[in-house]
Amino acid sequence: MSAEMVKELQSASESPLSPRGPGALFLADPPPRKPRPRKLIQCIRDTFRARHYAYGTEQAYVGWIKRYIAFHGMEHPARLDAEHVREFLTYLAVDRGVSVSTQSQALSGIKFLYVQVLGVDIGPVHGVERSRKPKTLPIVLSKDEVKTVLRRLKGTPLLMASLLYGSGLRLSECMTLRVKDLDFESGQLWVRGGKGAKDRWTLLPKSVVSSLRAQIERVRELWDSDRARGINTSLSPGIPRKYVNAGSEWGWQYVFPASRLWNNAETGQRLRHHQHESVLQRAVKAAVRKSGIAKQASCHTFRHSFATHLLEAGYSIRVIQKLLGHEDIRTTMQYTHVAGSAADGVRSPIDML
Question: Which of 86, 270, 300, 322 is flagged as catalytic?
Fold first, then answer.
């Protein structure tokens, strides 16, 4: 190496640009790269899960947030204000003709974005064109209609629909039932983390006990097979930290497990999830159609029918409120209008001619 080259390297190593000091042969390292900021939608989802919101609520709110951003030309919501929110909500009511509940859900999702995620108080949203609130009553099947629909079902869909009607469950509550939630001795069924993240107990009908026990035996056989292959059941994010072995324990298995395994993209694990809601939804829709019933009945109609038939049987509104898990008694009171319509004893004048 020539004397000139050695001298050049030594001067470079003693340069203030070099943190290595004398003897170093390279200039200073480039500054460390800043971590890439998380995308907005991922931040929103993380916030939902940190606050233990229901997955359905997360999906609905994220959907409205995406529509809100798209409506304003993909502008970042931090650069939008209450006036932009008003424009979007008015568009939903006037141009799209959405219902009042849909418009309210959109507003709730946007408020969650600003308050919980961005930490911004946009203040009250004035001048919104509100959707008109229709005075509708829940669709209820008569007892004979319930029998007719149930006769059109078979196997697991029949058992699930029987629990919707016999216990007053929501569809998601039925799908997420676990073995430990069934108390055959006391005739009770526990709903864990229902709407509003509340637990409650409800009825375990005697007429479904034998079918339910047979289903539990089938689940046990599947559980034995999964354990041999090292496959666990899916759990909410916080549960494994508190109950380390919950995924492989018998009590945590779903009463209605899915037939196919689910791959967790975050952990790479293969897990057994519960059956998808669409399985029962399709079966009930087909059963209603084959029954020749003209009512727009769905899975949730069984829950409405459960409450109405109990009310007609003379049970108090407070008992029904507790079984349904309603926080506000006014929500339960809607069934008094349905039950009373056939029990008022009013005769049409044409029948008195």
Answer: 300
Please report how many Cα atoms fall inside a 13 Å half-sphere around the Cα of residue 67, on the Cβ side. 19
Distances (CA, A) of 329 to 140, 198, 338: 19, 16, 16
Per annotation, catalytic residue among 61, 114, 165, 335: 335
Answer whether 236's CB lies under 8 Å from 273's CB.
Answer: no
Catalytic residue among 84, 170, 274, 309: 170
User: Given 45, 178, 303, 309, which residue is catalytic?
Assistant: 303
Q: What letter represents residue 111's amino acid?
A: K
Burial class (CB in 10 A: 0-12, 13-18, 19+), 21: exposed
Q: Measuring CA to CA, which residue among 26, 209, 42, 201 is closest to residue 117?
A: 42
pLDDT digits (tens, 9 = 90+) for 237-288: 778 888 888 889 999 999 999 999 988 777 788 899 999 999 999 999 999 9
78 and 36 Cβ atoms separated by less than 8 Å:
no
Instruction: With H, G, I as helix, E, B as strand and everything else as coil, classify residue 290.
Output: helix
* 72 in catalytic set: no
DSSP states of 163-175 as a string? Answer: HHHHH---HHHHH
State how far the Cα of 311 lies from the Cα of 339, in Å rounded to an integer: 7
Query: 307, 324 in Cβ contact below 8 A?
Result: yes
135 catalytic per annotation: no
Q: Which residues contact 24 (CB under 8 A, 6 or more apart)?
A: 13, 18
Please confirm, yes or no, whether 76 is among the known catalytic residues: no
Inter-residue contact 178 to 251 (CB < 8 Å): yes
> Domains of the chain (ranges plus CATH)?
40-117 (1.10.150.130), 137-343 (1.10.443.10)
Residue 300 falls in the annotated catalytic set: yes
Q: Encode pLDDT of 167-226 as tens digits.
A: 999 999 999 999 999 999 999 999 987 776 788 999 999 999 999 999 999 999 999 999
Active-site residue, selected from the candidate residues 49, 195, 273, 322: 195
What is the number of other CB atoms lying within 10 angstroms of the CB of residue 259?
8
Separation in Å, CA 299 to CA 53, 288, 296, 302? 23, 10, 10, 6
Is 303 a residue of the active site? yes
Q: Is position 195 annotated as part of the catalytic site?
A: yes
